[in-house]
Design a protein that fits this description.
alpha+beta; 24% strand; globular; single chain; 9-stranded mixed beta sheet
């Protein structure tokens, strides 16, 4: 049973929300960040990059404290307001490709994470968990929700549709041409209906935000140890999430670029592949795989199709059937010597939106020796891997939607 609770969101005023909302900090180039910081005094980037005010790069606790200060200034200047009573927030995104996402922003329980009601499919890095835990402890808020998905539920769908019958509290379009809508659901009967309906959901799955969720759990454990009389209702026992039905989730793949053939000649490399793959040279015409367990490869000016010889490969778990795992276990690790794909500098990951044309251009430029393409993972694969307690290789999925920071803020 999922414990999903309403909260009093801190959020931008209707006239400022389009100016405040920002993408995740690391998705901007330095030039993009500087431009937004210089010309938009309301951008949430001013909060998460507080040293800009003093033309100084801040790090660690000094930066976190200044983040808290900038945040308080935004509240003092009435750029942010806080709702008077706990609410759920129905949130809709329509992107430029006309994909539509309808979900609910709420606070979810750290105990559900610890008890595996909230399930993960990716490994986390301890240093990032600890760093973000310290950040959260000092700033005291979540500004970007963790993306969770749940099995389609007709009752929750009806609740969302009912909320959308009135004018949205705000509607804004980004420079990426994504349009965002938010409705506040705070009537007691509606709040009760949402909470009771989500309580019937047996499992939630993290789609995006593994480090944010695990850091919130670490922080809750620490604050509980400091407060042995805690009740479980304290704000730090929850973290903000955007709950989306799995039919709305969109998953894309990352292509792989590799810098060298691990001291093999082209002929020796292809012969090594032959034991596990049927290989066909496709010439210089762009090739995309059409089935699971098939891969495209670009090498020495030619595209190749690689068909897995299934009689030579063991499918013992859902993870074994994942294409990124197959590529790692059959080629990247045993042949190319890439045993740690998370940290090895010889491999690079490229969003599939760039296409195999981009893979070709990077290889032809001499920056890389070869590249691989594949089909995206499915929601059912993600769920099966999480259910079995496995974790995917790095960069196995690129998932939409991507939420904006600073639109709803959860203070704990």
């Amino acid at each position: 049973m999922a414990d999903i609770v309403p909260f009093k969101a801190v959020r931008p005023t209707r006239d400022k929300v389009s100016l405040v909302a920002s993408r995740s900090y690391q998705t901007y180039t330095e030039q993009e960040r500087d431009s937004r910081l210089e010309y938009n005094p309301f951008s949430f980037l001013h909060i998460i990059n507080p040293g800009y005010k003093y033309h100084k790069v801040l790090m660690g606790r000094e930066r976190y404290t200044m983040v808290r200060n900038r945040y308080q200034e935004f509240k003092e200047d009435k750029i942010f307001i806080q709702d008077k009573q706990p609410a759920y927030y129905v949130y809709k995104i329509v992107n430029r490709e006309k994909m539509v996402f309808n979900g609910v922003v709420a606070a979810v329980s750290v105990d559900d994470y610890k008890n595996e009601i909230i399930k993960r499919h990716e490994d986390t890095l301890e240093y990032r968990e600890q760093t973000f835990k310290e950040y959260l402890k000092i700033v005291g808020f979540n500004a970007e929700p963790v993306l969770l998905t749940y099995p389609d539920n007709p009752e929750i769908k009806q609740i969302i549709e009912d909320a959308q019958q009135v004018r949205a509290e705000f509607e804004f379009t980004t420079t990426y041409r994504d349009t965002h809508f938010l409705w506040i659901v705070d009537e007691p009967e509606s709040v009760k209906r949402i909470q009771e309906t989500f309580a019937t959901v047996n499992s939630l799955y993290i789609a995006d935000g593994h480090h944010r969720s695990s850091s919130s759990v670490l922080l809750a454990d620490e604050l509980r140890s400091e407060n042995p009389d805690y009740t479980g209702n304290e704000g730090y026992n929850y973290f903000m999430s955007y709950l989306l039905p799995e039919s709305d989730l969109r998953i894309f793949e990352f292509n792989r670029l590799v810098k060298d053939l691990n001291d093999l000649s082209t002929a020796d490399f292809l012969m090594a592949l032959d034991s596990l793959y049927r290989i066909e040279n496709r010439g210089n015409s762009v090739y995309h795989p059409s089935k699971k367990h098939h891969f495209s490869m670009y090498l020495d000016g030619d595209y190749y199709s690689l068909y897995l010889r299934k009689t030579r490969y063991k499918f013992e778990s859902s993870l074994d059937a994942l294409d990124t795992q197959i590529l790692h276990k059959t080629i990247l690790e045993p042949i190319l010597g890439i045993s740690d794909p998370r940290n090895d500098k010889r491999i690079e990951y490229v969003h599939s939106k760039m296409g195999m044309d981009h893979v070709k251009s990077e290889v032809d430029s001499g920056q890389y020796r070869l590249g691989f393409g594949m089909l995206p993972a499915s929601v059912s694969e993600l769920k099966a891997i999480a259910d079995e307690g496995h974790t995917m290789p790095p960069k196995s999925t690129f998932i939409l939607p991507k939420m904006r920071s600073g639109v709803t803020i959860y203070e704990f």
